[in-house]
Specification:
Elements (H helix, E strand, L loop, with lengths): L1 H16 L9 E8 L2 E3 L9 E8 L14 E6 L5 E5 L11 E8 L16 E5 L1 E6 L9 E2 L4 E5 L2
Parallel strand pairs: 2-10
Antiparallel strand pairs: 1-3, 3-6, 4-5, 4-8, 7-10, 8-9
Length: 155
Amino acid sequence: MRFTLVFAIIVLLFAACKKDKFTTAPQITFKSYNPNQGSNYSNNTNEPVMTLEITDAEGDLGFIAGSDTAKIYIKNLLTSKEDSLIFPDLRAANKSNFKAEIDLGLLSVLGGRNLPVNQRPYVDTLYFEVYVTDFAKNKSNVLVTDQPFYYFSLP
């Protein structure tokens, strides 16, 4: 009898602590960079991209012209360069229990230390802080990338 009661309490604790994958506030997870490096060389035609996974219970994300919109906020933690980007129009997507991977261009927040030309070339290791807001202004978890992005400063 005592063992059954203890077992029941443990099962209830695990059930109560289980996190729901789809919450009212959006949730983001870092997936990857493609490529994981960039430079200040002006003829570089491939913009580096960060891939995130996003989930939201209501799916109230996207862009609607003439309306308030959901945004993605990104910050380079080395230089403090920040930018906010709007989502594309997602009205055609499934609204409840929304889950998708999004690609986020990094060109607007790239950069490294501002060293004189005679101290170049050098490589900076960048990390980014990212979060999302939905139509209801719910803020997602604030994500700091756990993988480095390498930024090459050339003469």
